[in-house]
Amino acid sequence: MDDYPLLNLFWTMLWFFLWIMWLFLLFRVIMDIFRSDDLSGWAKAGWLILALVLPYVGVLIYVIARGKSMGKRDVQDAKERDAAFKAYIRDAAGTEGGGHKSGGHVEDLSKLADLKDKGAITEEEYQRAKSKLLV
Hints:
Blueprint: H1 6-35, H2 41-53, H3 55-93, E1 95-96, E2 99-100, H4 105-118, H5 123-134
Antiparallel strand pairs: 1-2
């Protein structure tokens, strides 16, 4: 380790980091080429060949030429995934637009508990009504 100074170690780490970042950018560009709906098949093939044959220059040209639309596609995809996730959560929770669907079981159970607490219904009636609601 004496023949490899600390400054050379930092330079090596910097170049390794830059190489990893470039690989990340290359994969992002390739993914964007394939998911882009506004490019024809020939245009996708041309961009892909440019990015693979002349990787550094091709990626740089792609980011300069289509970087803005690449960001817009990322934002649009994120919004679509967020909307799908929220729809899944609403469906799994059994709510539709904030209100309870199918009679509002939670509200019905709380009303039954209130009736039982007030003494309007017995414990057996409460258990019977609760089992009907939960089925």
